[in-house]
Amino acid sequence: AQTVTQSQPEMSVQEAETVTLSCTYDTSESNYYLFWYKQPPSRQMILVIRQEAYKQQNATENRFSVNFQKAAKSFSLKISDSQLGDTAMYFCAFMKARAGTASKLTFGTGTRLQVTL
Amino acid sequence: DTAVSQTPKYLVTQMGNDKSIKCEQNLGHDTMYWYKQDSKKFLKIMFSYNNKELIINETVPNRFSPKSPDKAHLNLHINSLELGDSAVYFCASSPGPASGNTIYFGEGSWLTVV
């Protein structure tokens, strides 16, 4: 079974600064996907970024980027130029690659990020 | 237009009642899910359907019964509600491997059992 660990329950960053959220996972699979989802106070689950394990290049989406270290089973999220709207719970998630149909997400316990003035 | 929509968004009900949460997706996806988020914010898969066929059932009490009348709908019926069923229930859908396996979530249905 896969497990996802987020060791930082809470973090705080000042507006315009950079923050990195940690995530490690455990799996025996060689092909899989990793995701970061954001959950603001509205409770909506919003996809932030996605990484395919077979790709060596780290995914980037505007101010959000990941540091994917496959051998270390680490998948951290870096948020640059933090904005007040980034305040949310952030969940790291793992999905096993499965032929023909989508698989399930296994989530970490989340990191609550507070962006301050 | 909301891509994955669930109703109701809020539901307060008494122990022992039976309730349903409806979900519809207009994305044309083949796979739909129900996830449960407990009071500690932990998210866990409950069920998954692919083209109306149950493919994942994660040790959920049989008081919970999903129903998929077509691939755009996945409803969740809960019998004999218990206090521990209080949670946020998220419906989600995915296009599958051809489009990167991304899962898209609805806004959640906040169930409170009193």
Describe this structure in words.
The complex is a heterodimer of chains A (117) and B (114). In chain A, strand 5 (32-39) and strand 6 form a beta hairpin. In chain A, strands 2, 5, 6, 10, 11 and 12 form a 6-stranded mixed sheet that branches. Helices cover 0% and strands 52% of the residues of chain A. The radius of gyration of chain A is 14 Å and the shape is globular. Chain A has strands spanning 3-5, 10-14, 19-21, 24-26, 32-39, 46-52, 60-61, 64-69, 74-79, 88-96, 105-107, 111-116. Chain A is mostly beta strands. The N and C termini of chain A lie far apart (41 Å). With 114 residues, chain B is an all-beta fold. Helix content of chain B is 0%, strand content 55%. Chain B is built from no helices and 11 strands. Chain B has strands at residues 4-7, 10-13, 19-25, 31-37, 43-50, 53-57, 64-70, 73-78, 87-94, 104-105, 109-113. In chain B, the strands form 2 sheets. In chain B, strands 2, 4, 5, 6, 9, 10 and 11 form a 7-stranded mixed sheet that branches. Chain B has a 4-stranded antiparallel sheet with strand order 1-3-8-7, with no helix packed on it. In chain B, strand 4 and strand 5 (43-50) form a beta hairpin. The model of chain B has no long low-confidence stretch (mean pLDDT 92). The A-B interface holds A 33, 35, 37, 39, 42-47, 50, 52, 89, 91, 95, 97-107, 109-110 and B 30-31, 33, 35, 40-45, 48, 50, 55-56, 58, 88, 90, 92, 94-97, 100-105, 107-108, 110.
For the sheet with most strands of chain A, the description reads:
6 strands, mixed
Distance between the termini of chain B: 33 Å
Residue-averaged pLDDT of chain A, rounded? 94
Content-based structural category of chain B: mainly beta
Structural class of chain A: mainly beta
**Radius of gyration of chain A, in angstroms, nearest whole number:** 14 Å
